[in-house]
Design brief:
By secondary structure, the protein is mainly β. About 10% of the residues lie in helices and about 50% in strands.
């Protein structure tokens, strides 16, 4: 009975994280994320299918705004199709507390984006830039991308 319960538990844990195909962070310089600084992520070759994407961030109390506007430029290879979209992520809630999972020195946040569809196997390149008024945006320590398959 105990062995059966361990097998069931292991299967459930594997099912929860089994569809992640890409998860990568890039460190942001302490001076801040420059408006012209582009953070680029490129996957390995993936099979055809629909992929859910999320932008992930680690933020500190030094972040000066309640939200952040980002631009995502996606490039699909080998087709070469491209798409750019802007989106807003809420960093702080209505009472001034950072949303997300608190860590020792920063809080981890994740924001779902629109799906990306690969009609043939290929790779995905995602380029992120912030669209805030400050040239050098403080308070973000890392920015990342998570991609999961259906």
């Amino acid at each position: 009975m105990r062995k059966l319960m361990m097998i069931a538990l292991t299967s459930m844990l594997m099912a929860c994280g089994g569809n992640r195909v890409y998860y990568q962070y890039e460190h942001i310089d302490e001076a801040g994320w420059g408006q012209k600084d582009t953070i680029t992520f490129t996957t390995q070759k993936l099979p055809a299918g629909r992929y859910h994407t999320s932008v992930c961030m680690r933020a500190t109390q030094r972040y000066p705004y309640s939200d952040i506007t980002l631009s995502r430029h996606s490039i699909i290879q080998p087709s070469g199709s491209e798409k750019t979209e802007n989106f807003k992520c809420h960093i702080y809630n209505n009472v001034g507390i950072i949303n997300g999972k608190r860590g020792v020195s920063s809080t981890e946040l994740s924001f779902p984006l629109s799906d990306i569809v690969l009609s043939d196997s290929g790779s995905i390149t995602i380029k992120l830039q912030h669209r805030m008024s400050l040239d050098s945006l403080p308070g973000l320590t890392d920015v990342g991308i998570e991609i999961t398959g259906e």
